[in-house]
Design brief:
The protein has three helices and no strands. It is mostly helical and about 60 residues long. The chain has a single domain, classed as Orthogonal Bundle (Helix Hairpins).
Length: about 60
């Protein structure tokens, strides 16, 4: 997921996308807990996607004031 792709979305769409990605992170944590996943690099990718989305939401909210 690239920031340039996310910039076209509205704040509401970004918030919905953030919820989806948060759920994905939760699922990864559950899988790790039961020993089902060995691909730990996905955690970093998901966390960075969350940060990208939050940054864009903050930018869009700041520009509308």
């Amino acid at each position: 997921m690239k920031a340039s792709e996310l910039r076209t979305n509205t704040v509401e769409e970004l918030n919905n996308k953030e919820k989806e990605v948060q759920q994905e992170l939760f699922n990864l944590r559950i899988q790790k807990g039961i020993g089902q996943t060995t691909q730990t690099h996905h955690f970093k990718k998901v966390r960075r996607n969350i940060a990208r989305i939050k940054t864009l939401v903050r930018e869009k909210e700041g520009s509308s004031i």
